Amino acid sequence: MFVTPAATWRDDVKAGCWVAVVVFLAALLGIFTRPTDYLASLWPANALLVGLMVRNPRLATPLGWIGAVIGYVAADTITGGGLFKTVMLTGANLMGVSTGYLLYMRISNEHRRLRVPRSVLYLMLVSVASAAASGVGGAVVDLIFFHEGPFPAWTFWFMAELVSYVIILPVALSAPSWRQWRTLLNYLRGMSRPEQFVQQCAPVAAFILCCIAGVLIGGPGAVMFPVAALLWCALSYSLFTTTLMTLIFSSWTLLAISARYLTLSSIDLNLQPDMQSLRIGVLLLALSPLIVAIISSVRNELLRNVQYLASHDQLSGLLNRRAFNELAVERLKPLLEKDFFAVLMLDIDHFKKINDAWGHAGGDQVLVAFADIASSCLREGDVFGRIGGEEFAMVLPNCSLEEARGIAERIRQTYAATPIDIGEGRSVSSTVSIGGAVALPPEDLESLLLVADRSLYKAKHLGRDRVQLEEAL
Questions:
Q1: What pLDDT sits at residue 39?
Q2: pTM
């Protein structure tokens, strides 16, 4: 579709406004955590801006960067910041953001989305470079307004920015897309069983209780109380959920100590070495669940792939015989004694002749095409599998004889009327014979498959390209 310059300009303006709003709100949040006159305990704006632009490079337009400047300046101005100092602080922030964005855009998408354990190394390298760049700008600000030495000022800025990047950037990079959000909401709605709900909520409940215990008990070890619960969350939840909880834990720790809600008798917040040590400790604590979550995510993905390969036919993508039988039995369990169900056996006619004429590659394409055509004719909840070379089977829950006949005829007619492209300008036309049986629970699935197989043999004996069904009552 052709996009007009006017439409592109409007999109850029919307992107700039969106960036300005996000940066403004994030900067306000950081300003409200300032324990001193100029430096926040937690500054989310920079890391959040890097994450947004990396996830959606369309935001990184000139208007997007202008929007970021407006957001920074507006937040500092309405909270009483002087213009010159605000401009200097904004410049320091943008030095770190631009460094992080440019470096991350040179890294593969696999690492940008934190897909593998080595992604944590890239996250740390980008965070260090971004924090160092911000630190340079921060050292200049300190030198002008507070007359501090450049190295202590740079160190303080560097550590504050580094912690913010490490605990906030993973949340932005691993955040689900809109489609994934809908999948998550559907999953949460499906947790109807109480035991399933309790099982899913147990890790986060343990995390909350540990945070409360840290506040009530206090002492040097209080910041360590939630660590075990965070690792449990990393093994139980998605990467995004783990990074979000890690952000909550790290932010809570820094803000609670600054506000004296969490007392650590061995730490003097007025001493820079103690504050730096605290930030380093929080940073390392935040990395632990992140690494565990990524490793767990990789392991789960590997297990899903292995399970898929073990249960699916690699050519057609349909269920193999074992997985077909297991899922069919599972789908038939909820049926009542009055609920009919149908079993269909399908066999592509004269498939050996197709292989002889067009080779096995052509025959494979015919199998794949048939699987796609037949799948498109089924209802949600029907079970479809490949149980042999050119043999397929279906289980149709809540399906009467006439409904099963209608589905089978639709498959037969659609397949017969669809020429199959096998490449190089060649096409193959073929037909399918279908046999089936309809019964009431608790009819045994295996015995009904045998009845359907006999019906299929009868359909072939009567001339092929036909549907033969019977009631097995």
A1: 58
A2: 0.75
